[in-house]
Design goal:
This protein is an all-alpha fold. It has a single domain (2-187), classed as CDP-alcohol phosphotransferase transmembrane (TM) domain (Four Helix Bundle (Hemerythrin (Met), subunit A)), CATH 1.20.120.1760. It has seven helices and no strands. It has helices at 2-8, 10-30, 34-57, 63-86, 92-115, 125-147, 152-187.
Amino acid sequence: MNKNRYLKSIPNVISSFRILLIFPILLLIYYAEFKLALFLFLVAGISDALDGFLAKRFNWRTRIGALLDPVADKLLVAGTFIILAWLNLIPLWLATVVVSRDIIIALGVFIYSFVYEPFEGDATRISKINTFLELLYVLMILSSSAFSLPTISIINFIGSAVFVTVIISGMDYIMSWLRRVRAQKINN
């Protein structure tokens, strides 16, 4: 039984490791050390896939993991978008839209949890696609800064896809919360 408890914590350790990588990644980007930043960002992205796979495949899900994984993702995405916009490597408006969506989601979860009950729920399919595209976009920006690849047209295409999925997933979350609030009012 104890062994299982330790195994269930592996995804949490991986998410914590991803959080620890954020500051060095941001620092490396700031100092234009794009090759090393790209490498660490890839490690962070792989860790995101790995912790999710382990949690689902072996049912190593925990309450802390349900909070830690999305927090790690949001901090990584928001941090990299902010620093890349600060350095004029991505459009400020895109960083603003991405970070604003994450703030709105975090506030929604906090308010719902405070007013009604602890928020339970997995990321929606469109939100997972959005997060993947955001990570891919940052990866491409770092790769372009380090190696001049991929082309600007590919980067712009992925940036446009990020914008579209940010809007769609943001609206999807808002509609989901409205349905939950309505259900809470009906049940009370």
